[in-house]
Write a structure and sequence with these properties.
The chain contains 7 helices and 6 strands; from the N terminus they run βαβααββααβαβα. It is of the alpha/beta class and 201 residues long. The protein has a single domain, classed as Rossmann fold (3-Layer(aba) Sandwich), CATH 3.40.50. It has a 6-stranded parallel β-sheet, sandwiched between helices. Helix 6 links the parallel strand 5 and strand 6. Helix 1 packs across helix 7. The radius of gyration is 16 Å and the shape is globular. It starts with a strand and ends in a 15-residue tail after the last helix.
Length: 201
Amino acid sequence: MKQIVVAITGASGSVYGLRLVEELLRAECRVTLLLTRAGLEVLRYETGLEWEGSVSERRELMRDYFEGNSRLEHYAEDDLFAPAASGSSAPDAVVVVPCSMGTAGRIAAGISDNLIERVADVALKERRDLILVPRETPLNQINLENLLKLSRAGAHILPAMPAFYGKPETIEDLIDFVVGKTLDSLGVPHKLFRRWGEEGP
């Protein structure tokens, strides 16, 4: 059973993270869901979800949202004693989705001031998959240099760029394409979008 950390930061697009967690749990992965304070605020603004309170209260709210799934874990942003913060307990993969440019910059600089940054650092040093899904446009030179530095260090840079050859009809179709590409990078089977060359339904 794969152990995946999904981190939601303060960039727009928290729905990508939610949808990814949903699909990973459906695939019977164990998921640790982390959020920055800015990530919680953007989540509330974009989805209306109020995941406030203590860590245990937030964990229960998250599990309720994902139909009571006990394979979902959650830790506070400043909990550097969480299992995933240690190389001896590194997850199989870490996905930061959406990934703010601030988070990308701090990871690129080797800064580990919070749990998300530390878990990303652990993924790189332990040669585990680190997938960053930036959702920002346009990108300045500093952003591009940080993403290139991360790519050279072993991270997968997977921008939230949906394709249109499948003739998406809903916002959910656009979300599913990006989430599906993320699942491809994780090696998790899915049927979220029609691949190029496949016949339509």
